[in-house]
Amino acid sequence: MEARWRQPALVWQWRRERQEVLRPGVGYPGIVHLVEVARAERALRQLYPYNSHCAVRLSSRTRYPYALRAPSVLPRHDGRFRVFVARGGTLRGETGTAEAAVALVVAHLPAGLRPAVAGTP
Q1: pLDDT at residue 1, as a whole number
Q2: pLDDT per position in the chain (121 positions), as tens?
Q3: Pfam families from the entry (predicted)?
Q4: 3-state DSSP: the chain helix, strand, coil percent, rounded to 5?
Q5: Residue 119 domain-assigned?
Q6: How is the beta sheet containing 55-59 ordered, strand by strand?
Q7: Residue 94 within any structural domain of the chain
Q8: I want to staple 86 with a disulfide (CB 3.0 to 4.6 A). Which of 7, 49, 68, 73 is the partner?
């Protein structure tokens, strides 16, 4: 699972660097740092991370169809982070830092959440 957590940070770092060359100042603010902060959180490290529509999502399954039981985080271009429930879009909050966004995700984890599994959880 550790390799899977490193992949999104590396992919988004490359995308950010590429975007900075193509369109300076119009990058992907905060997403690399967000992934690194989430990876450091023990409660989230047991889940399967992936990106969709520039949002960091955490699944209870390691393959599609993903099981989204944790809130997702969308880094905004103004440097803030929007924490929301992926299915339905219910806003859990908006924060000014990646650390606060990850804390908000952890605060909204369902009780009894188990590590991600390859099949149906």
Answers
A1: 60
A2: 666 777 777 787 777 788 778 878 766 668 888 989 999 999 999 999 988 887 899 999 988 888 988 999 999 888 899 999 977 779 999 999 999 999 999 999 999 888 899 865 5
A3: DUF6193
A4: 35, 20, 40
A5: no
A6: 48-52, 55-59, 72-75, 81-84, 91-95
A7: yes
A8: 68
Query: What angle do the packed helices 2-22 and 31-40 form, to 10 degrees?
Result: 170
Q: Domain count for the chain, please give it.
A: 1
Domain carrying residue 75: 2-107
Spatial separation of the C-alpha atoms in residues 121 and 104, rounded to whole Å? 23
CA-based nearest residue to 82, from 95, 97, 65: 95
Give the residue carrying structure tokens 């899977």: 4
Report which residue type is found at 114: R
Cα 70 off chain centre by: 10
Would you say residue 57 lies in a domain? yes
CA gap 72, 83 in Å, rounded: 6
**Cα–Cα distance for residue pair 32/18, rounded to 1 Å:** 14
Give the SS3 label for residue 86.
Answer: coil
Locate 26 and state its tokens: 């119009």
